[in-house]
Design goal:
It is built from five helices and two strands. By secondary structure, it is mostly helical. It has one domain: Helix Hairpins (Orthogonal Bundle), CATH 1.10.287. The relative contact order is 0.13.
Length: 130
């Protein structure tokens, strides 16, 4: 498949990739979970750097016109996207190794949160609606 278009198609391609590299069956769900933690650290690093860039651009709007600043921010944006994708890959691998459907996990999580009411405040605290 050259251009997977759905989540299911991408998931299958990731599993095929992992099988070809012997991640499946030679890894474990726990090993992939550890890898997810590592990748999540990279995601946090990139997200934090992007937030700093965004905060600086708000404080100093002239930065948005500087090629070096724009390039720096785009570099972190690329690292952010890469980390998000790597997290997906490790979670898909963990699910495949545990014989669990990743989409089913996502659907279960969504079913648990979909009716929650509340608002995330600017200070980062989520206030539940009663």
């Amino acid at each position: 498949m050259s251009n997977p278009t759905s989540y299911r198609e991408l998931e299958l391609e990731v599993i095929r990739w992992a099988e070809a590299r012997k991640i499946i069956p030679n890894s474990t769900p726990a090993a992939q979970a550890r890898k997810t933690v590592e990748e999540s650290g990279e995601l946090l690093e990139a997200a934090t750097a992007l937030q700093v860039c965004n905060d600086l651009a708000k404080l100093f709007p002239e930065l948005s016109n500087r090629v070096d600043f724009v390039g720096y921010r785009l570099g972190w944006l690329d690292k952010f996207k890469d980390a998000v994708g790597d997290n997906y890959v490790t979670v898909i691998n963990a699910c495949a190794l545990a014989d669990v459907d990743a989409v089913e996990c996502l659907a279960k999580a969504y079913a648990e949160i979909k009716d929650r009411k509340g608002t995330l405040m600017p200070n980062g605290i989520f206030v539940k609606e009663s």
